[in-house]
Amino acid sequence: MAEENRGYLLNEIGARKIAANVLADFQKLMPGLNVDPVEVHIYRRGHPLYMSTPGLYTQVQPLARHPMDRVFFANTDSEGPESTTNAGILAAQRAVKEVEARLAGKPAP
């Protein structure tokens, strides 16, 4: 988002307009799927960091990124201790494999 537009995030009307635009753009990307997302989360106060605790990367993250029927998760925080572009790319590649397996009627890799 361009710096001059960030003020829209500071009030509810602006945030709702941005959310509506995000949904419209999402639906343009997948017009044939008849997808209607239930929620849009907008973090207005920076990155939503979570607390690092024992077992987070070995037990919690694998559960949090596990697909739920037709919902697949891919973001930088689902892959490891650092939020990096590379982690986001790896998450996307993993999710693509999961989707392909689901569409082929096979178990997730």
- Roughly how many Å is the radius of gyration? 16 Å
Q: Please report the distance between the alpha carbons of the first and last residues.
A: 35 Å
Principal-axis shape: globular
Class per helix and strand makeup: mainly alpha
Count of alpha/pi helices: 3
What string gives the helices and strands in order? Answer: HHH
How many E-type strands? 0
The structural domain count equals 2
Main sheet makeup: none
Proportion of residues in extended strands = under 5%
Question: Unreliable stretches, pLDDT < 50, 5 or more residues?
Answer: none
- Proportion of residues in helical segments: 40-55%
**Average residue-wise pLDDT:** 82
Layout of helices and strands, plus pairs?
Layout: H1 12-29, H2 56-64, H3 85-103
List keywords for this structure.
109 residues; 2 domains; 3 helices; 42% helix
Walkthrough of the structure:
This protein is mainly alpha-helical and 109 residues long. It is built from three helices and no strands. The protein has two domains: 1-46, no CATH class; 49-109, no CATH class. It has helices spanning 12-29, 56-64, 85-103. It starts with 11 loop residues before the first helix and ends in a 6-residue tail after the last helix.
